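Hi R.,

Here's the chain you asked about this morning:
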Amino acid sequence: MNTCTTYSLFAVVAAAGLLGAGSAFAQLNPACPNCEGDPRELAEEAVLNAVPLSVWLDQATYGTGDVITITGHVAHTAADVPVTIKIHSPSGNIVWVNQLAPDENNEFEIQVASESWSETGIYQVLAQYGHPSKDNKAQFMLTSTSSVMEVADCGMSMVAIEDVCLEYEIEGGMVTGATVNQGDTSLILHITADDNGKLSVTFPVEVLEEVFLVLVDGEESDDVMIDGQSVHVYFPAGAESIEFFAAKVIPEFGAVAAAVLAVALVSIIVVSARSRLGLVPRI
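And here is the predicted structure, written out as tokens:
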């Protein structure tokens, strides 16, 4: 073995030793040795601090007369600057406005009574802190009867209709509520659509029988497939309602002209910019 080969072998062995030591050192030392607290709580706090203003509601659906709890967080506060909250009705009118100061934890909470609101549908909650660029919004469904009712134990992506769990799948938005229209023998699923998407639902005979027509925002949809009790319908971004007309709507669910159905759990599907209607596989 010549001198050059000896030096090369020594260099390889030394480099391997350094890499092994570095790996052992990384395993012995945590990524953040000075951090204290639950990692999940720290992550949630980091997300809140990254968003200038956050706002959320305690429910997705309320009935007329229910109390709506609005909660939020301001990432960075300034002295004597309040949070302004406005609520817009489905027709766009401002039905409630108020200002409040964040607490010492930069959080705020306020309760709003809805008994004076006669218009049903999707309401927008707009929160603003100081400059107009620091704003955020949430939305909820207001129905004509109280949303306080016994709900079946349903799982993800289901709407509870008394003791029947109506399962659905949705891409590009979320289901916010449902209404039975006994007079027109139809069921309306209220949705919010951030993107083009698709709703699939199989109706139990306890709810609807023989679906023959589907409307999206009041217009007959030609992008729908009805296969017995299963219905697949595509909707555009911004759609708010999908109405299913059937030969029969079970009377038990239509004793009131517009019986309101509570949502057991809203499944929010976040769709990337690549998830467009043309990319959704047709059935």
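One quick note: The two ends are 71 Å apart (CA to CA).

Cheers,
M.
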